[in-house]
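This section describes the prediction task in plain terms. A model, or a person checking by hand, is given the sequence of a single protein chain and must write out its three-dimensional structure as a string of C-alpha cells. No templates, partner chains or ligands are provided. The sample shown here is typical of the held-out split.
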Amino acid sequence: MSEILRVLKTFIAYLKRPDLYPELGRKIVKNTVNRGNAFKGKEKTNSWAASTAVTQKEAVAMLFGIDIDPFRTSYADILKTADQREKECPIKMGGPGALELIYYACEFANAKSVVETGVAYGWSSLAALLSLEKRGGLLYSSDMPYLAQDGDQYVGYVVPENLKPNWKLFRFADKESLPKIFTENPSFDVVHYDSDKSYNGRFWAYNELYKHLRKGGIFISDDIGDNSAYQDFCESNNIKTTVVEYEGKYIGVFVK
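The expected answer:
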C-alpha cells in the first residue's frame, strides 16, 4: 500500500468514527504544527539511557529480587502457541517485548489491577494476564483501532480465550480511554506504557498514569529512547528510575 493511499484510507476510516474525531484533530496537529515533537530530546535521552542501562535479567533481580529464568520454561507451551498465532496473523503489528519484566512486576506487586496502553498482538497483555489470573485480577488496556489495516479483529490475537475474562479492552486513543478506565478503577498496582510515541502524548499519559499508580506500584514504559519525555518526567518528579536495554531499545521502570 502506497503512503498516500494509506493516509487516505486512514482519514476516511476516521471520518466514519465520530468517537475518534478528537484523536483525528490531535493527529493533524501532530503531523503538521508539531512534526518535530516525536523526537524532542532524543539524542540527550539516548546518551543518558546508554550510560545507565542494565539487562532485563539484572533489572528484575535488582528491583524485585527475582530470577527471570523460570518464566520461559513455566509457560513454554503458552508462549509457543502465542508465537504460532503471531505467525498466522495476516496483519503486521508489534512483536513481543520484555515479557519477563512485565510478568515479574505483576508478581512482585501482587497485582490485582493493571493498566496498559498499546496492545497490538497482545504480548504484553499476555504477560500481565498470566500473573493476574492467579489472583482473579483485571487488566485494563487502551488501544487505538487499526484504521488503515482493517486489523481490529486481530488486536490481542495471541491472548488465549481462558485469560480473556480477566481483561477489559478500551478501543480509543489514550486521552479518551484512560479517563474511562480511571472511572472504573482509580488505583493500579502496575502500569505499562507502549502507545503514543510523541513527546507530548507520552508526557501527558505518564502524569495521568502516575497519579493512578498506588504507592509501591510498578511503572514501566517501553521505547523511552524515542524522545526525552520519560527522562524529563522522571527528573521533574524526582524519580529514580532503572533503564533496561532490550533488543536495541530502552525501557524505563521504577517502583513508586
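For orientation: The first helix runs from residue 3 to 15.
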